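Per-residue structure
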Amino acid sequence: MRVIRAVATLHAGRAAAVRQGVRSVSLGACRAAVETPSLRSTGSQFESRRLFSRSSYLRNANMTAAEIALKQAKELAASNMTPEAAAARMTPEEAKRLARVRNIGIAAHIDSGKTTVTERILFYTGRVKAIHEVRGRDGVGAKMDSMELERERGITIQSAATFADWKKKEKGVEETYHINLIDTPGHIDFTIEVERAMRVLDGAVMVLCAVSGVQSQTITVDRQMKRYNVPRISFVNKMDRMGANPWKAVEQINTKLKIPAAAIQVPIGSEKELEGVVDLIDMKCIRNDGQRGVNLKISKEIPAEIKELCEQKRQELIEKLADVDDEIAEMFLEEQTPTPEQIKAAIRRATIACKFTPVLMGSAIADKGVQPMLDAVCDYLPNPNDTDNTALDRSKGEQPVKLVPYNSLPFVGLAFKLEENPYGQLTYMRVYQGSLKKGAYLYNSRGNKKVRIPRIVRMHSNEMEDVNEIGAGEICAVFGVDCASGDTFTDGGLPYSLSSMYVPDAVMSLSIKPKRSSDADAFSKAMNRFMREDPTFRLHVDEESEETIISGMGELHLEIYVERLRREYKVECETGQPRVSYRETITQKAEFDYLLKRQSGGPGDYARVVGWIEPNPNGGEDNHFESRVVGGTIPDKYISACQKGFQEACIKGPLLGHKVIGSSMVITDGATHVTDSSDYAFNLAAQMAFGKAFTAAGGQVLEPLMKTTISAPAEFQGNILMLMNKRGTIVDTEVGADEFTMVADCSLNAMFGFSTHLRAATQGKGEFSMEFSHYAPAPPHLQKELVQKYQKELEAKRTK
């Protein structure tokens, strides 16, 4: 009876975890296990020795049978949880649903037309009834720029999510594709928004300007896509602009972004005469017709003036595909012409493998070429089942485990963005595995905290649509979940966690305080909210000056938050001089022999450390500690205290109180005292020894250099050269037909207020972006000035 009860309990407990497909373990297996020869022989040995009673033997046998049954059930459950088994059990309806889902992002350089493209996508898919332009020219503003600041400035500050259904004809049958779409900012200051979008998306549309081609932020976006292995299609926008050259953009994708690319369309007409595009795969003309280009006119007659160009570009496409796809390569070597279906299949394979990007073209503002781009999203970008999403299994030493977007598997999701809402905290979540139902309970894997999901919504910019259930592979938002950005949620049955996104270091700081002391509560509430929402926005209180310091990705980033404080919380703030995140380092080897000996009535402090400091021999910015003590002159327990002391000394350098990077400390000898030596004494001795030896080791200040890209009309080239000669080193200059681009490495310290100078020098027509490049030694005069200023501040503190 015990065996039967054990097995019954086992079945009841495993049914919920396995959910389906777990066949019941037969009692015959248990009985067979009890009656195995090994068990019988063991039982006979017990009987012959007469050490145990008959009832004791039966109890041991029964326990063994239950354990065997449990083991079999575990193995069966594990086999049913594998990605292969889940894929085999997937129903045709589920497979079809997944095949029609696309999770995509729109990413590009500033002012390439991302939000305008998104607005057209929403209009053509029927999500919005009318098109509104960026900057709120018509008093409404683009749907995806829901924040008042975004509409005023004409820039995207926060990534906005929406969803749409696109009806596409396939083999004469109309199929509906469900597209989850995220519109991302272009400014480097808001790069975290692009970062977290790329972390959860399956594919992306990289928008390029037909005049400027690949620009500075395009390169940053490309790097983010490669970091998360996000396949992309490229859309050359603004084909109606004067000087539009899509072939330059295609060439720059190949050369600057180092990813094979080829056009799959050729424009009909150019600049103001743009009529439509020629599809090079099916060799057909696609023209937009009707109000707002809602109707497509498709014909097989290609204009005579571009027929030869189309044939040439189609051959280039096949040659480029032959470089990245084996099937097309074989056909190319055998001098066979692939069919349109074979070309499409090859483009899809190569795009999903991140080996190739097809290039489409059009003009969103002129309502041309957007519908073929939507068809390309469906044809070439992956569905959730095509991508390899992995979790880390904490029970197996964080071994990677593949996640399968199957509704019947246990739930795994990632909270990738937080947003404060009048109804509470809104958490954006990507569902990687399983399904999520309203009222369900989830576990936050960070603290194993159980949370209930009271409300699930689909986002349409700042509007919400309530849903009762969300399936695997989808993106949604939930209310009532207290968590941090990057937290993993499971249904409690899996010890999984998902890797979070990459968060870049802050490059600029400002001191800030509310003008009225009565606003302190609102100020504190706002700061907590901003830090939760944006991992690149940081706040700390300076121990010496007791000032509140906010840090971020640039001048615009911090300016936006100060403005949001004023508008959303009615808190007027005073901001101080921007603070640059300097670093300190050493340039040569310096030995030390430091003795800490203090007596203050009772146990004192005694520690002697001998060794040297030098630049990190492994290179890079990491600090390195090593012990070469022999003979036990310093016990092991004090060695770890020395290491902590060195690490603490590196947090606040001797010259400016900024972080020390690229240094190494080696301890070779020392001395202890029977009663006065302690962890504290050796920690302090290591700090003091580092500080004393720092000057002898050629301590110097490093300043952050910013890769600055400036674009302006060519007539202002001379003015900008004069501006940049004072601020940094010019790396590259590219002069176009009517616009030029300059890339320079500039000291961040010299770039404060640069936007004002640039506007004055270019009549407001120039624009620039900054991205942290590297740390470099500060000029001697600046270093001397900074050190003197820091010493004066310390002196003022002591005399207070």
In short: Confidence is low (pLDDT under 50) at residues 1-61. Residues 54-81 form the longest helix (28 residues).
